[in-house]
Amino acid sequence: MPAKRKLAVLNNLTMHVASRTLAEPWPWANSVLLPPDAADGVAELKSQVGPDLLVMGSGNLLRSLIAEGLVAEYTLPIHPLIRGNGGRFFDRGLPATDLERVETLDTTTGVIIAVYRPANR
C-alpha cells in the first residue's frame, strides 16, 4: 500500500488521545480525549464492540495498561542495532507476565517483528 494511502487510512480512524495537558478542541480530525485516568477509558473502549485498539508513541500509557491487564497482544519490532544505554520498556514495576509468541516476521531490512500474547489468555 503506498504511503499516502496508508496515511489516509490512519487519518480516517478514530484516535483516542491520552494527555495530561491537552484540551479539546484540537486540529486533529476524528480524535477524542480519553478521561484523566486513561486506563479506565481504555477499559471502557475494550468493553465495546469495535476495531482493535493500537497504542502508538507512549511508553508511559502502555505501562499503565499493562499494569491493569488491558494489553491483549504485543507487536515488537526488533532492530539489529546495539545501543549503550536507554530505558527499559518492561521494568520492575510491572507484574510478571508470561508471553507466548504467536507470530514472527523477518523483514528485508533485518528487522524482526515478533507478536506475543499473554500466555494466560
Number of domains: 2
Helix/strand order: HEEHHEEE
Rounded mean pLDDT score: 82
Shape: globular
Helix fraction, binned, reads 10-25%
Cα-atom radius of gyration: 16 Å
Q: What is the percentage of strand-forming residues?
A: 15-25%
Q: What structural class do the secondary elements suggest?
A: alpha+beta
Number of strands: 5
The tally of helices reads: 3
- First-residue to last-residue Cα separation: 33 Å
- Unreliable residue stretches: none
The largest beta-sheet arranges its strands as: 3-5-4
Task: Give the biggest sheet.
Answer: 3 strands, antiparallel
Describe the structure.
The chain is of the alpha+beta class and 121 residues long. It folds into two domains: 1-71, no CATH class; 72-121, no CATH class. The protein has three helices and five strands; from the N terminus they run αββααβββ. The strands form two sheets. The protein has a three-stranded antiparallel sheet, with no helix packed on it. Strands 1-2 form a two-stranded parallel ribbon. The longest helix is centred in the first third of the chain and has 9 residues, at 3-11. 3% of the residues are buried.
Fold blueprint:
Elements: H1 3-11, E1 15-17, E2 31-33, H2 38-46, H3 59-67, E3 74-78, E4 99-106, E5 112-118
Parallel strand pairs: 1-2
Antiparallel strand pairs: 3-5, 4-5
